[in-house]
Input
Amino acid sequence: MRDSSKTLVTVVLFGLLMVLFSFIVIRSYENSTYSSENDRQVREDLAGTIDTIITGASHAEYGIDPVKLDKNLGTSSYNLSGPWQSTYGTLMLLREELARNPVKKVYLTISEDTFWVKETTDGVLGDAKILPRLNGLSDRLEYMKNSFGLREYPKLYQDMVNRGFTYWSAAILGGDIDGVDPEARGFYGKPKNSVKLSDEDAVFNKDRYKLNTNVNQSNWKNLDEIIKLCREHGAEVQVIVVPVSDNVIWTRYGWDLWYNHAKAFCAERGVELWDFNLYKERYDLFKDWYSYRNTTHLSDYGASKFTGVLIKTIKRAEAGKNISKLFYTSYAEMKEDSPYAAIYNAYDWENADPSKRPAQTDPSGEEPPADEEEPPADEEEPPADKEEEPADQDEEPDDEDLGDEPEDVTEENTEAGKE
Amino acid sequence: MAFVSYRFLALIVILFVVYFAVPKRFQWIVLLAASLVFYASAGYVGLMFILATSVSIYCGAMGLQAISDNNAVYLKANKAEMTKEERGERKKRVQRKMRLVLAAVLLFNFGILCMFKYLHLGNVRFIAMMGSSRLLSVSLAVPLGLSFYTFQSTGYLIDVYWGNVTAERNYFKTLLFISFFPQITQGPISVYEDLSKELFTEHSYSYLNFSRGARRFLWGMFKKMLIADALAPYVNGVFANYGEYPGYIALLAAFGYSVQIYTDFSGYMDMACGISQIFGIKLTENFERPYFAKSVAEYWRRWHISLGVWFKRYLYFPVAMAKWNKKLGKNVSAKSKGFGRNLPAAIALIVTWAATGIWHGSSAGYVVWGLLNGAFIIVSLWTDPVFAGWKKKLKINELAFPWRAAVTIRTFILVTFIKVLPEVGTLRDGLGLWKHAVTKLGIPESFDAIFPDFIDYTQIFNIKLALVFTALLFVTSLLQRKKPLYEYMEKVPWLLRIVIMACVAMVIIGFGFSQSGGGGFMYARF
Output
């Protein structure tokens, strides 16, 4: 054989083998039901029974426990969230679940990342995780077409091969497949990690990073579609923000601008927004740093507490009680109440060595604001003539299960965790 | 443009087709175009610097050649009429002129290198007034491969000065010699007479070159992405806070660093040599199984060979052979024969190793690193005869396996000790790590105890996999003692070879990209 012909045959053979191997590896993962990111089989088993859906990105996946919700509210809920789940991914998954379940309520969670993400260039790994969760080839092809930019396909391929190998190696070597617990109904609780902001960090890192407050219209369009779809299926939509750690709130700025976008969006569509970052009891509830698995996500312990808070809020709302009183009216107000504010204000600025103080500049080169953005003039204040809460409101007997300590958080391991 | 990227793959595919499609006499032009595209992808400012270097080197070399040629012509025409004194006088004048040209060009190029590397010019933000009100802020990044191409090009200029090679008359050929893309980032630092033959010779397509080159490229990726990048989080994490972990973790990180830097750097070399081989171009080899060396001196003959050759050729020999140094050796020999005989070499070694340290970085750690390497070599130079006598008396068979294994392990420990010093942070940190590793050593209670808490589940899996691959690398290194790896591969049936390569590629895609994403190489910072 001539050198050039032999090269051609080699390249073609090599390419064919790569396609074959890729198919075997990816297919094995894709068909592996109950793997960490593929709850397709679980949802199929539950088809026709789900009446409440929690959906959104990782904040919701790690932060809201449907089992606890069901136990206290008598619902049959499912957490349909996933890491870096885009609004389009949420729409596609909801389309499938609403079609086969008698859903009455959808808790649509949004976060500081929801609005700016661009489907075809950002969060490819999150998009990749949606793919095997969709039923049917046509849905997947439609999703691929709309969700991946040309440059994202190589990354998608690598990611799928990696997942395939990881699944295989775990299966062969007997390791942890890191599977979804079918009983957890889509909730993916994880233990705490280290999130603490030191006193010095709190002083020097206030408002260090700018929040991306851009709005990508395609996300609003997708959210519109989601609301429309839910209404078509007779499901009520409640928009929720799952709390992030004080660390994130304190070190970033632009929150109120983002909050105003969220409020405007919900108000225009007649949907209620509960931003639990602004929940007045957040510092007491989540003051323990082991409430978080990392700076932006709740741990299983934190999720248990937060689900308790959510249940309490839902019950209050269902009882027709005032909900707005539970929340701060703005992030600026909330930050003033932050435990870090005391450290920051108590710092001896006058006698501090200015050379030791790091410049408070954003890595992007933008200067930080003099102050947190003021809420707009039309910001809704709690109505002055609002009725006082009944005295027994706060003493309302909570369900026994609300806000209790998860079983695995004993005094012993909590102390160890603090170390 | 990273070696491990789709853009680079596209560049190679296009280059492959065009290179073998054009008439052979234009092949070097295709390589030059590809090299410029590759370089420009890292930034146009860097391209300006490499162009400045190439112009200065070209002009310098042409100037030196012209002075030398004119002198030769003049001498040929007038030799008979000139007295010995006149000839001597002329020789001095010509040498002075040539030295002046050489010094000016070297100053210019090493000046650029020093400005970026030691004065950290790149960190300075230049603000230029544009028009009446616009401000342009420019932050200069260190030009890609600055240390490497500066050394390669200045080596060529010195060779022209010495008359070892004739200056290249075509500027664009000089530019290709300096900017040849597979080696621009991290070398090898080639000698002009070797590389020019490879670059400017017409190459016919050969399946053998293609398959060997492609296999070597994959092997390089394998080393870099599955071993070096998997070990990186462990090593970096422990080096950053070694005091927080037991001594055995610090010790493992130190030896892990040795494996990491070898697989990273030699992985790059395999990739660079592999790409070049596809086009029929053979690059200088930079590694010869260095961790199998039996002394520090031998280790340096096997590690980053091209840099060692550069320093030996352009610094060590000139210093060792300098009149003042020889004279000093003679004077000392009169009092102590053995010491005096080795003194010129020792002085040259100290100078060379201090320069090698400075080449790697401006911190005290690197200077000490260089001097320590030099010290070990000098001490062995002086003590070798003593040890040879002892070995004879003790009847030690130096060819016996236990002896060879012992000295190999000893050398590995020594080079790891030196290597780690500048990498932990400051020199004090480097010494602190070793002190911590020895004084707080401890014993891990289980295998999993060797993984610090900052290493997550996936990283642990990748590190375990890297350990398996390191063992595989060790075995292949042993095999290479007899013959090159490709010869073993070529005994495998053709079809099976393709299957093996496809499997390797799948493993790289599956495990390699998740940890590195095609990240940078460690030696690029030097």
Observations:
- Residues 60 and 274 of chain B are 33 Å apart (CA to CA).
- The first strand of chain B starts at residue 125 and ends at 130.
- Residues 124-138 of chain B have pLDDT under 50 and may be disordered.
- Strands of chain B lie at 125-130, 134-139.
